[in-house]
Design brief:
With 112 residues, the chain is mainly α. The protein contains four helices and no strands. It has one domain: de novo design (two linked rop proteins). Helix 1 runs antiparallel to helix 2, helix 2 packs antiparallel against helix 3 and helix 3 packs antiparallel against helix 4.
């Protein structure tokens, strides 16, 4: 949830140029989706649903990294402004990807 809130604040700080607004909307969608979909993961009714929803969280977290890197590369915002949130987004993407891999591996072990 805190990551999504930081994304909201960052999107508000973007300039009103067309390119920044398009990228900002994409970032806002993917970054807030991480929180909402993670909440859904926590309420999954089966292992299959857990894995499917966790996959969505991993994808949205990775997409958030992409948009933040694009903002950084195009210098839409000062790179110093992005340091913390870009690091956090990469960490979240890595955590969710590793969790997904573990969950899939555990499902395969149980199935054998």
């Amino acid at each position: 949830m805190q990551f999504a809130i930081r994304i909201i604040h960052l999107s508000r700080a973007l300039p009103k140029t067309a390119d920044a607004q398009v990228i900002g909307k994409q970032l806002l969608r993917s970054g807030t989706s991480v929180a909402a979909n993670y909440r859904a993961v926590c309420r999954a009714r089966s292992k299959a649903e857990f894995i499917a929803k966790l996959g969505i969280v991993a994808e949205e977290a990775d997409e958030s990294v992409c948009w933040l890197e694009m903002i950084e590369s195009t210098k839409i915002l000062n790179p110093k402004r992005l340091d913390g949130i870009l690091k956090e987004s990469r960490e979240l993407a890595a955590i969710f990807s590793a969790s997904l891999k573990t969950a899939r591996g555990n499902r395969e072990k149980v199935g054998k």
